[in-house]
Design goal:
Shape: globular
Number of strands: 0
Structural class: mainly alpha
Distance between the termini: 32 Å
Helix content: over 70%
Order of helices and strands: HHHHHHHHHHHHHH
Radius of gyration: 20 Å
Number of domains: 1
CATH architecture: Orthogonal Bundle
CATH superfamily: ABC transporter involved in vitamin B12 uptake, BtuC
Strand content: under 5%
Length: 333
């Protein structure tokens, strides 16, 4: 078995094992036999309720988040030819956060009780914020020719959104600010089956771009001029990449909050494992590796026990930040 096939096989089986562990492990530990019983249609009703209504949606969400952020990160790093670029580079996360801040904090500033706040409201305000900032990036991009300028514009728009969030926090009551801060820490547990269907729809649309982008991405690694010389419509491909990354990142951020560093770290881990830059291999491997890492983060978040859950954003940063530091210290370009 060659190296690439071995990597794919190990990641595939590891993702299945971790999915099952994530379903069984938590504040209430469930025996493996109960999971088998669930598949056969015969298990304890309480365990069935925990697995079907809480644990399985959470595990599926972890897989979708891992797929979305890692693929977005890979494509963004290729587009900008920058190893430190992630899926939030165009201010998508900041736009989503601003949408949630307006929904949660503006309620407080206007004297509206937080009893009217709902999970669906948070999700849709996040998606609206991400979409509006994406449209703003598009409008700015019509005046820009260089990808580096687009990158800087996205970062600056993200800074403006962050500044607006800080102003809203200063005029809001402590309870609303706490709700917003909890959202920014990231959580997979709030995604129900109903929300999961919407999330799957958006992620599915984003992933549908994959077959059309694989070969153009390989060509763009060698520069826009080379890609254009072999018939790639670079401008069209650029917008397909940005639209897909926005759908994938915006959908996951809306339902789980921002989860950092997965999009930056996973592409580098995968390149190290496969030792190739061919996107036909990198993209599916990033999907598997991203799913494995987010499932691991979710499992580790349950370790304190007694119903206490660690913020998943902090755990993903513990994995991603050392990878970014390694990239910087190794002097890679």
């Amino acid at each position: 078995m060659n190296r690439k096939r071995l990597v794919f096989t190990v990641l595939f089986f590891l993702s299945i094992v971790l999915f099952v562990v994530d379903v069984l492990f938590g504040s209430v530990d469930i025996p493996f036999g109960e999971f088998v019983g669930l598949l056969k249609g015969s298990c304890d009703p309480i365990h069935r309720t925990i697995m079907v209504d809480i644990r399985i949606p959470k595990a599926i969400t972890a897989v979708l988040v891992g797929i979305s952020l890692s693929v977005s990160g890979l494509w963004m790093q290729t587009l900008f030819r920058n190893p430190l670029v992630g899926p939030y580079v165009l201010g998508i996360s900041s736009g989503a956060s601003l949408g949630v801040a307006v929904y949660l904090l503006l309620f407080s500033a206007l004297g509206i009780s937080t009893v009217y706040v709902s999970g669906w409201g948070v999700a849709f305000s996040s998606m609206i914020g991400a979409a509006l900032l994406f449209l703003l990036v598009i409008s700015v991009s019509f005046r820009l020719r260089e990808k580096v300028s687009l990158l800087i514009a996205g970062i600056m728009l993200g800074c403006l959104a962050t500044s607006a969030i800080s102003l809203l926090q200063n005029i809001s009551d402590p309870d609303s600010v706490k709700m917003f801060v909890n959202w920014t820490l990231g959580s997979l547990s709030g995604v129900t089956w109903e929300k999961l269907r919407v999330m799957i729809l958006f992620v599915g649309i984003g992933v549908a771009f994959v077959p059309f982008l694989l070969k153009p991405l390989d060509a763009m690694l060698l520069g826009d001029d080379y890609a254009s010389s072999i018939g790639v419509d670079v401008r069209r491909m650029r917008w397909m990449i940005i639209l897909s990354a926005t759908l994938l990142t915006g959908a996951t951020t809306a339902f789980t909050g921002p989860i950092g560093f997965i999009g930056i770290a996973v592409p580098h881990i995968v390149r190290g494992l496969l030792r190739t830059s061919v996107h036909r291999l990198l993209t599916p491997c990033c999907m598997l590796c991203g799913a494995v890492l987010v499932l691991l983060c979710d499992i580790f978040s349950q370790l304190p026990g007694d119903g206490y859950v660690l913020p998943i954003n902090a755990l993903s940063s513990l994995i991603g930040a050392p990878v970014v530091l390694w990239i910087i210290l190794s002097g890679k370009r």
